[in-house]
Amino acid sequence: MKIMEYEQMDKQIIQGVGGKENIKSVIHCATRLRFVLYDESKADDKKIENIPGILQLVKHAGQYQIVIGGHIEDVYNKLIDMLDFDDVSNNSYNPQKLSKKQSSVDKLIETVTGILSPAIPLLAGAGMGKVLLLVLNLMGVLSSKGQTYIMLNLIFDTGYYFMPAFIGFSAAKVFKTNQILGAFIGLVTVNPNWVAMVAAGKPIHFLGLPIDLVSYSSTFIPAILSVWAMSYIEKIVKRVTPDVIKVFAEPMLIILFTAPLTFLIIGPVANLISKGIANGSMFLYNSVGMIAIPILAGLYPWLVSMGVHKALSPISIQLLISKGYDPIVRVAALCSNMSQAAANLAVGLKTKNKKLRSLALSSSATAYLGGITEPAMFGVNLKLKKPMYGAMIGGAVAGIFAGFMKMKAFVYVTPGLLSLPMWVSKTENFILPAIMTIVVSSLVTFVATWLIGFEDPVDDPDLKFEKNNANKQTNAKQTLKSPVEGKVIALSKVNDKTFSSGIMGKGIAVIPNSGKVIAPTDGKVVASFATGHAIGIHLDNNADLLIHIGIDTAELKGKYF
């Protein structure tokens, strides 16, 4: 797509959601725009779904989600330019703006995922950088004692080590508080002096109160809770601080109250929550992992379709931070992603619709290589419905295999062929099991999708007859009479491109004098429509004939016929 196309799409999107004045906030994830609207009833769902380039519309948990695919970044950037919000905070996710009908769980999930979403690309990039460095070391290209290795390791380590700062900055945007102070609160917990105190292990007190020696590097829950508390502290400080000293007094007081509160209470509590998430997930994995992974893999596409798969991101990230690996969420995502790709491959090879074939095969390649499945899912599988069942079967079977192989992911990144190094660590290598899982998922899904089949779509219902008989050969000429009395005109003059372009084949058009239509010659009726507006006849010379009465008469639903 080009810039002009993005502009045109964004103009239509803004109109479709009810105009700029109806937009409370908008953010984006890997493939979709996530709007929070003042009045969702003002949005025109059909208009949105008919915009070229829009794959799907999803409404969930107070968000109006428009699935676009790989061009999301460009579409979003141009959209923000057009919206021209007066305050950058308007362009942020705000949990307080969500529908009051949301449950507390929905609000919590949306808040956490809204905070983590901006940081996920950084975590994926830094994580894959560390894995690439490891692979180069194992291949003997770089020595772990060499300065190049040490410098690259330092660079990529920064992405995870200083996660509290990135999360603090992102959380401050969500909670409508000062983002620089949000990052500061995150950085306080990874200050080198604090790290040294934790390493020393000597008791520390503040105002006589003991402080738990907790390492906060590579964490995100403490930063989220601390900045949330800071947002309320800031409001109180702003109310009581005299204007004459606001410039220095406000940030000083906010820091003075928030930072000690973080070390004394919020940090230790958040640390317990973090450990609880990781240990609870591992308990379930060790108890019912062989069942849980295939179930999750089978249901994963539906979670993606509703946009709630992001709720699993905190679990996956916490497992990677606490345990060093994720044996659950990323594994299920691999099985699901590859099954979506394989279902598209089956559709692409089986369909006789050229447009669908092109879309399915290109979407399959995108899903296989990068693990981006929204184009495959929304553009093909969900629309045809039955390929989704094939993908669920293949994903579940692959989940059984992956669970048996005890696979582990060591980086938070979308699973695909290009991200295979995510299955390698210094002590373990699951690349071969990952490849085998991809093969299992692909084979089972492909066969299931092929056998289950699907209704091969066409551009117009009347094309079904023509396409189903396109390969038949006629044996001899056959004279036809006009099926209706009236004036004969060239087919090219008909105000319907389906016929005037000749895509249906050669023919004539008749402006009728009466409403009686008769068979033009001998033959067998092989296609009819409940609406009565068209009929297909197989002639004695093996040719096929379509008689179509009127333009857009299918919309009459049989009335007058």
Overview of this protein structure:
This protein has 561 residues and is of the alpha+beta class. The protein has 3 domains: 1-83, Glucose permease domain IIB (Gyrase A, domain 2, 2-Layer Sandwich); 105-452, no CATH class; 486-556, Glucose Permease (Domain IIA) (Distorted Sandwich), CATH 2.70.70. It is built from 19 helices and 11 strands. It has a 4-stranded antiparallel beta sheet, with helices on both faces. A 3-stranded antiparallel beta sheet has the order 9-10-11, with no helix packed on it. Strand 1 and strand 2 form a beta hairpin. The two termini are 45 Å apart. Its main location: membrane. One of its GO terms (biological process) is trehalose transport. Pfam families: PTS_EIIA_1, PTS_EIIB, PTS_EIIC. Residues 7-89 form the PTS EIIB type-1 domain. One of its GO terms (molecular function) is protein-N(PI)-phosphohistidine-sugar phosphotransferase activity.
Structure summarized in a few sentences:
The protein is an alpha+beta fold.
